[in-house]
Amino acid sequence: MVHVGLERFLHHRQREEIRVSLEADHGISLSSGEISVLAVRFLSYLERLHCASASALRAALAADGGWPLHVDASGEDGRGTLLVAFAGWRQWVLGAWKVPTERADAILPRLREVTFRFGPPCAIVRDLGRAMAEASQALLESLKLSIPVLACHLHFLKDIGKDLLEDSHDRLRVLFRQVKLRKQLRALARDLGRNIGREIDAARAGLRRWQIEAGSEKRLPAGSPGIAAVRALAQWILDYPADGSGHGFPFDLPWLAFYDRCLQGSGAVGGFLSDPPDDPSVRKPLERLRRILRPNCPDAFENARPVSLGPRHPASQASHRCG
């Protein structure tokens, strides 16, 4: 049961993966349904252990000089809301519940449950929503506490960042979709992959050799390594989500990252075409890539650029690199 629970919830493995590994590594044969039963049972026992350890956890929090209560809720349409209470300094989850909706009357009983088990917090950190604000204030009144109630910086910055960047970021998205730039890049990469065909391994090896040996040489190699180089450049531009941090908008600006990679890719194509390859099978897709990266409305892209994020932002650096 513990093995299944750890694999399922700590290592995020699917039921079939757990079933196969149990049989292969330990000779234990279970059905997928039994894996689900054991996973649910593990959660039930874990919850009981958490509640039984409340006194020890409370003593540890008190020994720290108190604990700040971080509380937040997130949900998916039609699936309810997950409410989480978190001890900020220790980074311990003190409670997690499914609530029907993010309303103060649904949140308050859970906050009271946490303070009953683990003692009153020394501060509360919440989001900017009305329900969380009302529930936090009601908790303080019921406990007769006078402690700081702080707004989460992440939520605050997200709100401000959305106000500052959403309109211009949306304009970039609309413009890219109008010229179908991603669609054209995908089509180019797909066509070049078909052209390389079964020579893909040799093309990759040739591309790696060219990258190591070319130095400051701007001329692309002939044949399949050159085709692979053009394809790799198109795929690199399409991989713009890799420039994000994973925190979502506005901390990540995917369309700005795409814009920056298009600028850098356009600069690279211009460099390669300043000394164009003799092989037409390489030169023609390179020229096609240049046409894709130079849509018929470059002025519109310039006017749609989001507000400046400072000289150290990759967008500013890309502008200097690519002219």
Can you describe this structure?
This protein folds into 3 domains: 2-52, no CATH class; 54-151, Ribonuclease H-like superfamily/Ribonuclease H (Nucleotidyltransferase, domain 5, 2-Layer Sandwich); 163-322, no CATH class. 63% of the residues lie in helices and 9% in strands. It is built from 14 helices and 5 strands. The chain has helices at residues 2-10, 15-26, 32-52, 54-63, 104-118, 130-143, 153-179, 181-196, 200-213, 223-238, 254-273, 280-293, 298-303, 314-322, and strands spanning 68-75, 81-87, 92-99, 123-126, 149-151. A 5-stranded mixed beta sheet has the order 3-2-1-4-5. Helix 5 (104-118) packs across helix 6, helix 10 packs parallel to helix 12 and helix 11 runs parallel beside helix 14 (314-322). It is elongated and about 80 Å long.
Keywords summarizing the entry:
single chain; 5-stranded mixed β-sheet; Nucleotidyltransferase, domain 5; alpha/beta; 323 residues
**First-to-last CA distance:** 60 Å
Count of distinct strands: 5
Biggest β-sheet strands, sense, barrel: 5 strands, mixed
Q: What is the residue-averaged pLDDT?
A: 87
The low-confidence parts are: 304-323
* Overall body shape: elongated
Class computed from helices, strands and strand pairing: alpha/beta
Give a brief description:
The protein has 323 residues and is an alpha/beta fold. The chain has 14 helices and 5 strands.
